[in-house]
Amino acid sequence: MHKHLTKFASAIAVAASLAAGSSVHAQEEPIKIGAIYIFSGVAATYGEFAQRGADLAVEEINASGGVLGRPLEITYEDSQIKAQTAIQAMRKLVYQEEVDVLMGLDSSGVATGVVPIVPEVQTPFIITHAATPDVTGKLCNEWTYRVSVNINQNVKGAATMAAETDAQTWTTVGPDYAFGRQSWDFFQQYLGELNPDAEFSDSPSFPAFGTEDFTPFINAVIDAQPDGVFVSLWGGDLVNFIRQASDLGFFEQDFEVIMSLGAATEVLSALGDQMPEGVTVGTRYWYAGPDNPTNDAFVKAYRERHGTPPSYNAQNAYAAVYAYKNAIETAGEVDKAAIRDALSGMTFQAPIGEVTFREGDHQAVVGPAYGVTRDDPDSEIAMLEPLRLLAGEDVTPAVEDTGCNLAQ
Amino acid sequence: MESVVAALWNSLELGVLLFLIAVGLNIIFGVLNIINFAHGALYMLGAYAAFTLTGLLGLPFWIALIAGPLLVAVLAAVVERVMLHNIYDRPITDTLLLTFALLLIIDEAVKWVWGTGIHIVEPPEILAGTFSLLGTQQSVYSLFVLAVGIVVGGGLWLFFTRTLAGKVMRAAASDRKMSRLVGINVPLVFTAVFALGAGIAALGGVIAAPIRAISPGMGSNIIVESFIVVVIGGLGSFPGAFLGAIVLGAIHGFGSRFLPELNIVLPFIGMAVVLLLKPQGLMGRSAI
Fold first, then answer.
1. Which of A10, A58, A5, A63 is nearest to A33 (CA)?
2. What residues contact residue B101 under an 8 Å CB cut-off, 6+ apart?
3. What total number of domains does chain A contain?
């Protein structure tokens, strides 16, 4: 008996050491994430912000023991804001780097090119920036998810703010590609529903993306004297527009101005105290908005590392990495098809709040933040006061209205 | 009426800015016979120099106006000595490749030094604000842009027609061999011309800094515009650069105002029309 017990104990010891050995081995095998962002040209700052957010999430997760005992490893590729380059990058990441999941994409144009190819590589793709409704609408597929606010949600927020003003006649200034035109279409649709008396200009302004001189467009709006102007310009274009508009007295005119992406931190920090006060501006995430411990920890860690508050793109990429971690833990494995299924309908905690990927179209039910700019001497960027966080449920159209048919 | 005045003024301001960028491109082509793809990047360096000197070091804008172009001119002289001077006799494709490489190098260097963020430069106090012009409001800064354009354009014209250095440059442009035979130090002239062209581009960058957002890649936007200016005005022609810039300025100023739906294609339509009617450009001497 005693002999048997010794044998039994040593067998357990051998088994335990084998198991320990194999888990050590597993720890050396990282789970690979492939990320495709824009790292060159005028919009390179968006790739940098996304990388900062994703790197922060990966480091936090690895510092606390990884996922299923395995560390995360992330590889970045530059889309050069071209769909074809992004598709090549995606194939390279999947077939050569053998990544387990994909994330990324700035620009709606790039996303509409990439998303139809995602099923070919049989890898879950979490979109964190590109805002065209199509990727969770008519182009949706079982492999593609979006964690970030889309144009629908963003512009429904703008229309909600617009409906609360006295303005009846509206025009727009937006970039001359799908994003600017879709933004204007949605604005008319949503504001028309909220305020049936609203009238919309039949000569809206769509300057080319990358226009350096907005003066003719600004003059055209001032001449037309509408009650309200909806601006969907973003990034460097928006910075140019705001400065040139300030010079021409645009913000002293008697009309309401709503900018759907005016509260992006890269725009506010570029402009500093040149940002006019009293303008209604929106963003897809405002660092000072969501009141939850995840956001507090994220903003604190980001600030400590980079000295600035995080932008929406940083939050989105950070959230995507945590979404993936959550999906692995839910599925209990890293298998691509299992992750794809785990993401569908999944709810997880992100800085922006509790996020759910809808089963019907894989769009996260999240809402934008809108506020009125106010100069704050204690802050390097303008503050939003009052601030409105729009609930995802209130700004996300029903699945039936998205054009997505995942059930086939 | 007001809208026409506004469009006219805007066309002039934009045209002058385009002139500052395109004229250097044209001078460099006229003398060195290379199409400098990196020219927009030199403009960008001017803007970043203005941002560094005023925004980061807190110096007055006027210092940046002088120091920015000088710094870029010195850098350009070094680049010409190290890189470009070896390839003047090579096919035009080689020079295109080399200057394109230079553009990429400068773009990456800018990201490395200044990051990818967007920056702005504040105009000097005296140039802030607006004034009324025939019922329209215009920025005081646009007056300054026009003044700089007149000074630079006039100065260059006097330089090339009235000074020995200018005449030497023109001589080197029209016949290198003969210039060498009469004792002109042609390599030195080439270095000087490249530095001059780069310095004017950088001046354009400094001038643009208080009205344009500064970010990596801003040079690529402007280079396309400059090429259109050069095609419209005529390759290698100094007055052509001026005329081409004013025409493109007008296409933007009036086109964006009165035909906004066509604002993207109008510059190319303008270029195509000029090419059809006068393939060598409005002021070009002969087709290449």
1. A58
2. none
3. 2
Domain residue limits, chain B: 2-121+143-277
Prediction ipTM score: 0.82
Q: Are B244 and B22 spatial neighbours (Cβ–Cβ below 8 Å)?
A: yes
Q: Do B117 and A45 touch (CB under 8 A)?
A: yes
A236/A248 same-domain check: yes
Buried b (16+ CB within 10 A) or exposed e, B49-75: bbbbbbbeeeeebeebbebbbebbbeb
Report yes or no: A273 and A375 within 8 Å, Cβ to Cβ. yes
Query: B139 vs A235: CB contact, 8 Å cut-off?
Result: no
Q: Is residue A329 part of a domain?
A: yes
Phi, psi of A38 (to 5 degrees): -95, 120
% of chain A at pLDDT higher than 70: 93
Q: Smallest Cβ distance to B221: which of A40, A212, A248?
A: A212
Query: Is the Cβ of A208 closer than 8 Å to some Cβ of chain B?
Result: yes
Whether A198 and A113 share a structural domain = no
Tell me if B230 sits within 8 A of B25, measured CB to CB. Answer: yes
Q: Which CATH number fits domain B2-121+143-277: 1.10.3470, 1.10.10, 2.30.30, 1.10.357?
A: 1.10.3470
- H/E stretch holding A349 reads strand A347-350
Report the alpha-carbon distance of residue B106 to residue B202 in Å, rounded.
13
- A217: domain CATH number is 3.40.50.2300
Q: Which of A359, A380, A383 is nearest to A371 (CA)?
A: A383
| Yes or no, beta carbons of A266 and B118 under 8 Å apart | yes
Query: Per residue in B234-244, is it b (16+ CB within 10 Å) or e — as a string?
Result: bbbbbebbbbb
For residue A386, the SS3 value is strand
Nearest in space to B121 (alpha carbons), one of B194, B193, B44, B185? B44
Distance from CA of A242 to the nearest CA of B (A): 10
DSSP strand pairing (B130-133 vs A256-259): unpaired
**Contacts with A240 from chain B: Cβ below 8 Å:** 211-213
Assess B134–A contact: CB distance below 8 Å, yes or no: no
CB contact under 8 Å between B213 and A270, yes or no, is: yes
Determine which of A37, A38, A42 to mutate to test the interface with B (most B C-beta atoms within 10 Å). Answer: A42
> Which residue reads 């044998």 in tokens?
A7
Measured between alpha carbons, how far is A287 from A153 in angstroms, rounded to an integer? 18
Task: Tell me if the pTM is above 0.90.
Answer: no
Question: Per the domain annotation, does A108 fall within a domain?
Answer: yes
H-only helix segments in B54-139: 61-82, 92-114
Same domain, A58 and A178: no
- The whole-angstrom distance between B239's CA and the closest CA on chain A is 24
Distances (CA, A) of A317 to A37, A295, A311, B14, B60: 10, 14, 10, 39, 40
For residues B71 and B90, the answer to whether their CB atoms sit within 8 Å is: no
In chain A, the largest separation of any two C-alpha atoms, in whole Å, equals 101
Q: Give how far B201 is from chain A: nearest CA, Å.
A: 16
Q: Identify residue B124 by its one-letter amino acid code.
A: P
Residue B170 CA to residue A24 CA, distance in Å, equals: 74
- Is pLDDT of B171 > 90? no
The boundaries of the domain holding residue A234 are 152-283+367-395
How many residue contacts between A and B have a Cβ separation below 8 Å?
119
Rounded-to-integer distance, Cα A248 and Cα A254, Å: 14
For residue A6, is pLDDT > 60?
Answer: no
* Residues A238-296 pLDDT 10s: 999 999 999 888 999 999 999 999 999 999 999 988 899 999 999 999 999 999 999 99
Residue A114 forms part of a structural domain: yes
Task: Give every CB contact of residue A70 below 8 A, 6+ residues apart in sequence.
Answer: A26, A27, A29, A30, A31, A334
Show the 3-state SS of A127-196: ECCCCCHHHHCCCCCCCEEECCCCHHHHHHHHHHHHHCCCCCEEEEECCCCHHHHHHHHHHHHHHHHHCC
